[in-house]
From TrEMBL:
GO terms for cellular component: Golgi apparatus; membrane. Belongs to the glycosyltransferase 15 family. This is Glycosyltransferase family 15 protein. Keywords: Transferase. SUPFAM superfamilies: Nucleotide-diphospho-sugar transferases. It comes from the Eukaryota. The lineage of its organism: Eukaryota, Fungi, Fungi incertae sedis, Mucoromycota, Glomeromycotina. One of its GO terms (molecular function) is alpha-1,2-mannosyltransferase activity. It comes from Gigaspora margarita. One of its GO terms (biological process) is protein N-linked glycosylation. InterPro entries: Glyco_trans_15 (IPR002685), Nucleotide-diphossugar_trans (IPR029044).
Length: 213
């Protein structure tokens, strides 16, 4: 399944007429009113990859993935976007919530990247999930402003939660921001991925979303 979602789902005949997709897991909860169209938002703002949760991967499950990625970077340095957010993923991490542009995966850079990974055969021997592979690819090939954190979407994939902070969200959400990953000491190391994103992403105002401007 992970190999399919990493390198083949976007090539399916049923998806050829579409430019965008939203990955929704079967066991998740959405705790906030979504009063805007995420697809319109990412199209109008030139966003190619959006997320709400990003988790650190357990290195025991992907012992050779990051070394393989670094080997790709050394082999194809000109494929890497100069204005990328590569610092965001210097530790392997991934997101299981995605709103993204299908043409990112259909493009030459990602095709070269997936084929490079696939030739190692490690999809069959390690847990190379599509989540970290997509996140790494977005960080390598996209400009900083093209990667977006959808803070305003309250999202729960047990045991991980993103619950937006601020008075502007209180009337729209049923979750407690204190339970979000970055405030949950029980999660430990996994909690600082969003903080890393904010550290390396451009500081821009969210526009075009009701209640957030």
């Amino acid at each position: 399944m992970c190999r399919f979602y990493s390198g083949f789902f976007y090539q399916q005949e049923l998806l050829k007429k579409y430019d965008y997709y939203w990955r929704v897991e079967s066991d998740v909860d959405f705790y906030c009113d979504i009063d805007f169209d995420p697809f319109v938002y990412i199209k109008e703002n030139d966003i190619k990859y959006g997320f709400t949760l990003v988790l650190y991967e357990e290195m025991i499950t992907i012992p050779t993935l990051w070394d393989t990625v670094k080997n790709f970077i050394r082999t194809f340095p000109h494929s890497i976007e100069n204005d990328s957010i590569i610092e965001f993923i210097t530790d392997d991490n991934g997101a299981n919530f995605e709103i993204a542009d299908l043409n990112l995966w259909r493009g030459e850079a990602y095709t070269k990247f997936f084929n490079f990974l696939d030739k190692t055969g490690r999809f069959f021997y390690e847990w190379w999930r599509d989540a970290p592979i997509h996140t790494i690819a977005a960080a390598l090939f996209l400009k900083k402003h093209q990667v977006h954190f959808f803070e305003e979407i309250g999202y729960h994939h047990r045991p991980f939660l993103n619950c937006p902070k601020g008075n502007k969200f209180q009337h729209k959400c049923l979750c407690n921001p204190d339970d979000s990953m970055e405030n949950n000491n029980m999660i430990g190391k996994k909690s600082d991925c969003i903080l890393r994103y904010h550290r390396f992403s451009p500081k821009t105002e969210i526009t075009g979303i009701s209640g957030t401007s």
